[in-house]
Amino acid sequence: MSQNRTNKGKKVMSDDNTTNTNNSNSKPQKRLIIVTGDKGGVGKSTFARALFQLYINKNLPCVTYEADLRNPQLERYFKKDYRPIIRYIDIFHRGGADDLLINLDESDCPITLLDLPAQSGGFFESYVKELSFFEVLKTDINCRVTMISVISRVLDSINVLEKLRELCKDQVDYIVVKNLFHGEEEKFERYNDASLRQNMLATGLIELVMPDLFYKSYDFIDRHALTFNEGQTHKATNIVIKSRIKSWLAEFETQIKPAFNLLGFDIQPDDGYYPAVVEKSKELRENEEKEKAKNQDSNLPSQNIAA
Fold first, then answer.
1. How far apart are alpha carbons 245 and 135 in whole angstroms?
2. Is the pLDDT of residue 24 over 70?
3. Three-class HEC string of 49-64
4. pLDDT digits (tens, 9 = 90+) for 146-179
């Protein structure tokens, strides 16, 4: 499948986040969505996986980037069918994330989803400053950035959000996601009472909640490394697991609707995009299996001689 695709007729976003097809930049506008949360376990990868699942379900073309090479979540759950659009950067080493900016410039895919790993904030800051990242995206690539901060109830979530705001200033659109796995919405008192929150709300911050998926259903898809769609159809699932996953994904979609325009859901669907990706993934798997079988066959004579 070609990396590039046509954007003719695609909706794009203006600087005030409204749909617009006329930009001063000659390139069609793109959207880079960065999911962050500098502490591990806040739920950012779960949010990224659910968001990617909705893009697939709605035929909205997206390319994803893994930045956690030690524990690549998107790869683990989606690689089987979507390998060509799961790419990799190393945010922890200088130069290791350069392909992200290069591909944003060269690709015409309208949505790019980046899942930043825990403890990468300082490395991402260095990357942004060295490349004048946000300025290049705006002026040279015509790409807007949505920065999603998934938070828990602890004070560290506020501190990380404050550092993020200091780095990005008004160059990005902000979304804060309260993960209800960590408690009911009103129990996020440290965040709810923070002056930072009030200041960001006054300048356009959108707040969302991510529903809590019952642990048995979550453990099921985690144990079998399934997408949210696959969790509903797997041979080992049952009606309760299926119902919970289906309801959770529907509720997730409902909860993120206030930020649909910042998440790329207003672009024109492309019904052929994901079938082509799946077909390419199948071809890659078959080629790997043939190569593996070929290598095994080539080793047989030497093994027989040794025997």
1. 40
2. no
3. HHHHHHHHHCCCCEEE
4. 999 999 998 888 999 999 999 999 999 999 999 9
CATH class of the structural domain 12-271: alpha beta
13's enclosing H/E stretch is strand 12-13
DSSP 185-204: GGG-HHHHT-HHHHHHHHTT
Phi, psi for 170 (deg, rounded to 5): -100, 25
Q: In what order do the strands lie in the sheet with 111-115?
A: 86-88, 62-66, 111-115, 30-36, 143-151, 173-179, 206-210
The answer to which of 37-46, 56-65, 192-201 has the lowest mean pLDDT is: 37-46
Q: Which residues, 6 or more positions from 151, have their beta carbon under 8 angstroms from its beta carbon?
A: 37, 42, 157, 158, 161, 176, 177, 178, 179, 188, 191
Q: Per residue in 231-284, pLDDT tens? A: 999 999 999 999 999 999 999 999 999 999 999 999 999 999 999 999 999 999
